[in-house]
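The pair is quoted verbatim below.
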Amino acid sequence: MNKEFMQAVEDLEREKAISKDLLIEAIESALVSAYKKNYGTSQNVRVNIDRETGDIDVFMRKNIVDVVEDPFVEVHVDEAKEIDPAYEIGDIIEYQVTPMDFGRIAAQTAKQVVVQRIRETERSMIYDDFINRQTEVVTGVVQRISNDKVFINMGRAEGILNATEQIPGEKYRVNQRLKVYVMDVKKTTKGPQVFLSRTHPGLVKRLFELEVPEIQDGIVEIRSISREAGSRTKIAVCTYDENVDPVGACVGTRGNRVQAVVEELSGEKIDIITWSDEPGRLISSALSPAKVEMVLIDEEEKAATVVVPDFQLSLAIGKEGQNVRLAAKLSGWKIDIKSHSQYYPDESADEESEFTDEFENDDIQESDEQQTEQEASAGEAGETEEAAEATDEGESIVAELIDGEEAESEEGAVSADGDEDDEEE
């Protein structure tokens, strides 16, 4: 060892952030093992490296005893007093036993120790760095894709994006930049393993924190998130400043803030609602965009029955029950949705009965009107027949009168003729 070696150690301390003292202590410990391996495993030795010059000294350590049983680790008290009269039984005496060729062994051992310690320190620093960044969002580049796993380079470490943590339908390519959620960090013999996620609800939360300054400043708070990755996410926000609209702050001007999050999540739909401490209002908002008529709360069961208009039932439930499922996760309540007609069956029956009665009354009224029309038609027909009969009678009477007059005239004519005959006679 020499000053050049110590200078190299100091350079490592600056570049790799490895403590000089810890590195030297590790080299000293490795040299002890190297000495025992080469010069006897039973000896009790200590190695000391001078922090200024880099010189190495090897000391054999022995216990001072009254009766020597093992001369490799024990020395008689009288022999120790010859070296220094102050020694007593139970003290430890050291002899310098540095071998002549120990420098070569020391240099080789030191190199191995330094390389190993650098690796361990870097791994430890990476682990400490990412364990502190757990639940945070980091930006990485897709390094390689192996089967269903995607390996992402994050600078000092490589993260693993397993198939279960990938957004369904999302395609990845090498050199693609991604924002990922640091889900877990584990120590292994090959270094720390960083497990990433693109499906965790925390990813949506962190992305909104990056896009919305009001969330960073604590003015707006995300109270709850429910997510089905790749399809839809619901978030509930609140504010402690009555002059701030929490939903509007998250949406941004012309939707630019929420749109940035949607683009990062490959077009995933995001519903933003206002948080409420009143369960009924919260559940009603959580079922948006469906309109709610009434919410009945069961505090003991932490369940709610929601009544919606008949035409809103499918919208409230959502495709394959997604909307109500996300609303239940968001609010923390069990939700049972019923349509208006399902919740008020008697009212529906009455409406049907009223409709039937009206229909029947309309039929009866219509039949009465038809009967009246038939009667009126029959009356008109009777009057027509009577008039016809009267006309016939009148015509017959007139005919009789005419016949009578003609008869009289004929009689008169006959009479005149007779008078004329008489006159001629």
